[in-house]
Amino acid sequence: MATKQSRSAARLMMAPAVFLLLVWMLVPLAMTLWFSFRKFLPLRGGDLGFVGFDNYVRFISSSSFWPSVQTTLIVVGSVLLITLVLGVLLALLLDQPIWGQGIVRILVIAPFFVMPTVSALVWKNIFMDPVNGLFAHLWKFFGAEPVQWLSQASLPSIVMIVSWQWLPFATLILLTAIQSLDSEQLEAAEMDGAPVLRRFWHIIVPHLSRAITIVILIQTIFLLAVFAEIFVTTGGAFGTKTLTYLIYQRVLESQNVGLGSAGGVYAIILANILALFLMRIVGKNLDA
Fold first, then answer.
1. What's the CATH number where 213 sits?
2. pTM of the predicted model, to two decimals?
3. 3-state class of 47 per DSSP?
4. Average pLDDT of 61-72?
């Protein structure tokens, strides 16, 4: 049992790390808030003074703002749906005793360790190239016209690339949850004559509820900041401009740090709204 002195010593030892973490988080946030209220043009005069909420009004009244928010939510929702459905199926498959099970699991998880820029380049040049890509040759084999993926199906292409990257993560978490399932429950249900689908819906899915909510929470946080895949493939064109990419354009392409900082604040607000909503779901499942 910890004494008062030991708890005080623990807090004292943790204080430097907590302080550094707070500085690491709060300083960039404070700078973002500061610049969002100023007109700061690095290559056109520098800091031109306080402008109040003008940057916020300009950013939200931009014709690109709401479409970028919509695109962001579509990408996040689509990737979550694909990775959860395929993740559950892959986890169930990998849980079965098969030859070379360890190698198969490594191959399934491997895409998660590929850099987003590299994976986007691979998909763009090897799979989705309309002339020499694997998909183009497959379409020609069946007598169909190759698809211009990054222009005709740009948003589905982004969703496909990002889903391929995050599917291993969802599979790994769900596989761990499935392996913790008591096999006696499934055996008892099977002996009682319950069909496979009923055993899946009434035993496996409820057992996976906590793992699913954790996957949703973690992936959503990172998916809101998807950037490299869009930058490498479409450059924000053809309806693939997310809120993150719009902020990039305002800061680097337009050289307007104040306007981009206001967009960053909007992104923080959106992320916190989704986080609060998801935390309520996670809290209910963890308390169940």
1. 1.10.3720.10
2. 0.83
3. strand
4. 89
